[in-house]
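# step 3/5: fold
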Amino acid sequence: ALGAGASAMYARMAGVRSLLTVLSPAPLIVVLLLLAFSPVRELLFPGDASGAIRGPARSSTPIVLVVLDELPRSTLTDPAGRIDPELFPTFARLARTSTWYRNATTVDDLSGEAVPSQLTGELPREGSLPTADRHPRNLFTLFKRSHGLTVIEPITELCPPSLCPRSRRGALDRLDGLRADLKVVVQHLLAPEDLRDGLPAIDRVWEGFDDGPRVATLRGGRNLKGEVMARLAASDAPAEFRQAIGALDRPGSRPPLVFLHSTLPHATWRFLPDGREYPLHGRDIPGLGPKGWTGPQWLVDQGFQRHVLQVQYTDRLLGELLDRLRSTGVFDDAVIVVTADHGASFRAGRPRRPISEDTASDIALVPFFVKLPGQRQGTVDDRAVRSIDVLPTIAGAAGVRLPWRPDGMPAGERRVDPTARIDVSHAGAPVLSAPLGSILRKLRAREVVEARLLRRGVYAFGPRPELIGRRVAGSRAAIDARATVDALNGYGAIDTRARSIPAYVSGEVDGLKADAVLAVAVNGRVEATTRVYGEGGRLGFTAVVPPSSLRDGRNAVAVLEVLRDGAMRTIRLRSA
């Protein structure tokens, strides 16, 4: 956020722009300027907005709000608009006991703006920061007197420190981070365009632009954005979910308010449906470049497969939360909202994010389930609900009148409007306005594509699914081809009960062409089919095999070339 504040100051102050253009030691001067102005000052010396509104003194309604990260509606639904109970049993169960607002859309395609809008009921403003100082009227300050707060907020900081104590860096540490971030910002501003590609990105994280490839750590209670945030979320998101679950085991004198912004199922994808992880060996998301999907559609589809596996794990964790709500007797009386901040797109040649007309159905449409107190029967509602309706809906269900006029409204007060338009911003700046009808037509087309991809199951994925299960004993050798398998020796001593298992088989090949079809066999049976992809001047392959195909101890892995007639030829392997 420090870097974001610096960028905002540069954009708004002509004097600062001129100074940076002329002086190479500008970062030192800019630090002094920024210390005197918002928004950077509030990040270095944060205040406390807990007294901004009074809110009700008492309430009998437990509140649970779960915001998932980067979950498109289309992932959950089939071409008929229904949730597949085989793939996502918890979401299907939730739909049977709640109101599912099937046409809900986000108001912004970035978490730092989308989540504050959900927590405040207000549209995002360009240049605003996701802090309590900038958003003092929110879910937490509204219910601070009436509820016992459990707030898990890995990206934003809307819960004031007096209500949600968190570890914060001192001002000197923050200044040091600001100095480093400003150095990168100034290089972006002054370097010729052809030299900027080699600089650290400044549009993926809040701060720590030049932290390098290592996994980023929390700073001042905020997670980092983009791929850095995703790596962090891969190891911490389950613990955050279970922290929310554990909070329900500690009854207090006031009803609970549990807020969880889970960084699942956000990329990078590394979880299997049962919660075990698979190592990536540096092949995090083949076919995805800094500005979007660069590989062929089949490679993008492999990313979608791994996304679905991670959503299935998210479904499992959500099931644990709902089970705990029932076992503790909280479920019936509670208002429970499960939604997502935004979606993601899986279209070759298009950005995974941000949003555009081509990807609006993937990114704008999000799940939105509301279980009202006493509700036992589920219903599907096609009103044009927006993410700014989350807080007004919760307040209405709890019988509380908001002491300010939000941009949103209770979801049940929206009307079904076939002429409705969808307006979405990027970092608070308007970027898309389109008819809801056209977006829904694209959604249905995407649902058909995804249903075709998954028709044989999540693991029977790839160009030759009919080969799954075939024995490979006796296959002829491929004369010219060679392959390396990442961490091949690791298949010699597998513990299937370990937290991490090598279900992601990856490596490189020589002697074949890009798009050549491969089969991956484990212990003598084909468990996945895939293709060869070209990236960075090399030919690689990846495939996810079912964890059930791996056994304790030694496992035999084979990679085979698949010919047009379905015949297979074994490729000689070596460990990478």
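# step 4/5: annotate
The chain has three domains: 2-45+171-198, 63-165+220-449, 465-575.
# step 5/5: archive (pending)
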